[in-house]
Amino acid sequence: MANLPFQDKVFAVTGASRGAGLATARHLLARGAKVSMAATSEENLAKALAGIHEDIPEAKDRMLTMICDVSKQEQVEAWINATVAKFGPLHGAANVAAKMNDRIFPITDMPLEDLNLLHDTNVVGTFNCLKYEMKNIKNGGSIVNCGSIMSKYASPGMSCYCASKHAIIGLTKCASFEGAPRGIRVNALCPGAIDTDMVRQPVLMTNGEFWNVKEDHNIPSLTKRWAKPEEIAASIAFLLGDDSKMVNRQECF
């Protein structure tokens, strides 16, 4: 018998066109869920959709895809409204959409626009999603926000990213208290290095050279290895599912 722990449950996933967001959407769809996928790239979303149709053909009627910039509140509201109109109220959500620094500069040299860019997606985006997800989620639902190992630690030159990921922990804790009377759980998954294009991108340093995480050193993870997007998806699914009903307000590293 097929293992379908999320049969007919409704989930919203951001950053769903690639990386951990796409892996999460695929994981849920393969286990019977109805999934609404949001992303900013129409091209990447189309590729993701084609791959799912090929690999999980039985899920084609359980999907909704929508272009959505999570930093824009009206777009998030429209996406969640469309999701509820198609599938009904949410059982859960995974807020995976994120941006990283493309340069490692000290605060004294870091342009303010870098802080604003990461804040808009990582912090404002998570806030916007929480706002409309919590308005449209069933009692007993679960929301997972994606923080980072940098939600707990810090690194020179990473002030903008660290600040944005620390903020997600604050949002998660507040939302968990606000959702508790309805049995809504809100947790943060805080992974280290995920093997995605975003994490592997070279970043500019003040000396004009580019730096990137190597296979054998400087991997920001306690296990000192890259996490596969599918491993992150499985962790998110655990936090969304019934096996973690007593897990709430946690920062899972």
TrEMBL record:
Species: Eutypa lata (strain UCR-EL1)
Keywords recorded for this protein, A-Z: NAD, NADP, Oxidoreductase
Signal sequence, renumbered to the chain: none
Transmembrane segments: none
rRNA-binding listed as a keyword: no
Record protein name field: Putative-dichloro--cyclohexadiene--diol dehydrogenase protein
Family the entry assigns: Belongs to the short-chain dehydrogenases/reductases (SDR) family.
Top-level division of the source organism's lineage: Eukaryota
Domain Ketoreductase: 9-197
GO MF entry, a single one: oxidoreductase activity
Lineage: Eukaryota, Fungi, Dikarya, Ascomycota, Pezizomycotina
InterPro entries (UniProt xref): KR_dom, NAD(P)-bd_dom_sf, Sc_DH/Rdtase_CS, SDR_fam
